[in-house]
Amino acid sequence: MSTSVDVHPETTAPSAPRRPRRRPMRRVALWATLAVVVFIALFPVYWMLATSITPREQVFEFPPSFIPTSITFEHYGTFFETPALLKYMVNSILVSGVTAVGAVIVSSYAAYSLSKFEYRGRKSVMYMIWSSQMFPTALLLIALYLMFDRFGLLDTYVALVLSFMTFTLPLCTFVMKGYFDTIPTEVIEAARIDGAPERVITTKVLLPIAIPGMVAAGLFAFIRGWNDFIFALTLVGEDRRTLPPGLVVEYLGEFQADWPELMASSLITTIPVVIAFMALQKYFVEGLTVGSVKG
Amino acid sequence: MTMKLKERSAGSASANSRRSPPDAVGRRGLSQTQVALALVAPALLLYAVVLLYPLVASLWVGLFDRSLVRPGSEFVGLQNVQDVLSEDFVGLLSRTLVFASGATVLPFLVAFGLALLLNQGIRGQGALRGILLFPWILPGVVVSFLWLWIFNPNNGVLNGALRELGLIEENLNVFTSPWQSMLLVIVAKSWQTFPWVMVMMLAGLQAVPRDLLEAVSADGGGTLRRFWHVTLPSLRGIIFTVLLLELLWNFQHFEMIWVLTRGGPAGATTTFSVELYETAFQSFDLGRAGAVGILWMAVLSIPVWLFTKYGDRRVG
User: Fold this and answer.
1) What is the helix (H) or strand (E) element at residue B99, kind and residue range?
2) Which end of chain B has a smaller Cβ tally under 10 Å, C or N?
3) Which has the closest alpha carbon to B283: B108, B71, B66?
4) CA of A91 to nearest chain B CA: how many angstroms apart?
């Protein structure tokens, strides 16, 4: 079952057969339904944005007004004036970045092997890597915690990067394998016939072609690492904490949370992910389907 | 934001590489295989260290009386497993199943409906799909904050709206009601998941053979007939995969439940993952947490068996 089909919304007619006569009532109903669903789907996002720019005293009015009557950016300012939050952000960038680079390098070699070579056990390796989808993260955490403890790695960046590999390694391997599968074997075989050694084929022929795929896989890994909560909550303390557990610790204490500030901080936390997402646009849908279905 | 599935020759290219006679590679004998193994070795090593060993070792801990805060461990066999089984295991299992199936079925229905609507060839389909993906890319904790704030018992917009509409007299506090809390975590998780399902279903819908649809139309079949006899059967594979993956992921979902309810009130939203985490890292009872893991994997082996039986042609 491959979902990576040729899809051009403009050129491909909808899969419902072309109807010669348009029924206007149907169109209206269609659009009305869509409008309602889209509104419900996106209202929470709107509400996050609205709360983050509403002055504090208005936020805690009840009933709340749906459109902010006056606007402030002080809650965003607070984020950048809170040293703890800035530290979490730096940690997030560092750990997610290193994880992404590491995962892409290791998984690209593996994906090349899995995609372009025939050998016994290839399928088993694919199965094994795929099956990690169902290893419960919370369960892995028990042994990972004990392992890092034994090697004195608790509360280090190394612990975070290694634990992030539990999900980035399989993810990147499948994205990269999907990518290598699109590269015709002839490219490699031509080089082999020319007598090029494998190392040269890998670095001179394949690497340049593979770079777009590696960027996509890296961005995926970065997003997943950036969004991690459970590992950074458990394996490290205050100094190495990343943004997601950092926000929880900082804002969800015993007292009523400062909602406008939390909403502003949440949006700031989301920005890098959105940027990565935009950069991925071209690969995004494809990667989603390649990474999970074809995988 | 235009997002298209990039036109790919993936299907044919990968099929070719797989169908290519083995001697194309094998001609060069062992060295080719050695190269292939050398390339995959680092990934396998990493896999063993961060995935395979931790899985086995965590389950192994379940056979010991072992604490996180005091040294030493004693082999107790299946004692921990028996303890977990004797203390409302049925409740734990059913809460996990309710959450996992709820957070799988709800977004599936919404997303399938949306995909069908978007597939009607409306203008701006690509842009709409892009915007609708937004909930999916939000970090899980951010999604949780959002829903915490919307459902806030004092100042939440939901309470505000319901009171304005005159539907309620007193503010709702879903966090004190067991079933409302469960509903909340399901809704929040579904809201985050539906875009992914939608994209998958759209990709599947666009692969539905058009000539078949037209054939049914020519025979006088209406929308329902086309859907039932052509669309649905050709989506069978993707529906199976999406539901199964979702089920597997939801089964072990942790962060949103943790941030939204901490498994409460009074354990009403405590699933396997929350129970395991609390036992290990708040009660520091590693042995018992490992035992929860043992039972968890035993339960999980049912969908895994299903997948290997029916889903294997989609791997590799």
Assistant:
1) helix B89-118
2) N
3) B66
4) 16
As for the ipTM of the complex, it is 0.84
Distances (CA, A) of A101 to A108, A115, A161, B277: 11, 21, 10, 29
Do B191 and B200 meet the contact criterion of CB atoms below 8 Å apart?
no
Q: Please report which confidence band the pLDDT of residue A282 belongs to, taking 50, 70 and 90 as the band edges.
A: low
How many beta-carbon pairs below 8 A join chains A and B? 381
Length of chain A: 295
How distant is the Cα of A88 from the closest Cα of chain B, in angstroms? Answer: 14
Question: How far apart are alpha carbons B98 and B107 in whole angstroms?
Answer: 14
Residue A275, domain CATH = 1.10.3720.10
Q: What angle do CA B2, A9, B15 make, to 5 degrees?
A: 100
| Cα B63 from Cα A213, distance rounded (Å) | 44
Q: Tell me phi and psi for residue B64, to 5 degrees.
A: -120, 155
Whether A99 and A186 share a structural domain: yes
A77 lies in some domain: no
Nearest to B217 among A17, A144, A269 (CB): A17
Q: How many angstroms separate the CA atoms of A240 and A246, rounded?
A: 10
| All domains in chain B, ordered by first residue | 23-61 (no CATH), 78-314 (1.10.3720.10)
Using CB atoms, pick whichever of B131, B161, B213 lies closest to residue A16.
B213
Contact B219, B287 (CB under 8 A): no
Q: Distance, in angstroms, between A55 CA and closest chain B CA? A: 14
Domain that holds residue A194: 85-294
Q: What is the DSSP letter of B175?
A: G
Q: Which residue has the higher pLDDT, A256 or B232?
A: B232
- Which of the four pLDDT bands, split at 50, 70 and 90, describes residue A56? confident
| Strand (E) or helix (H) holding A163 | helix A157-182
Query: Does residue A3 sit within a domain?
Result: no
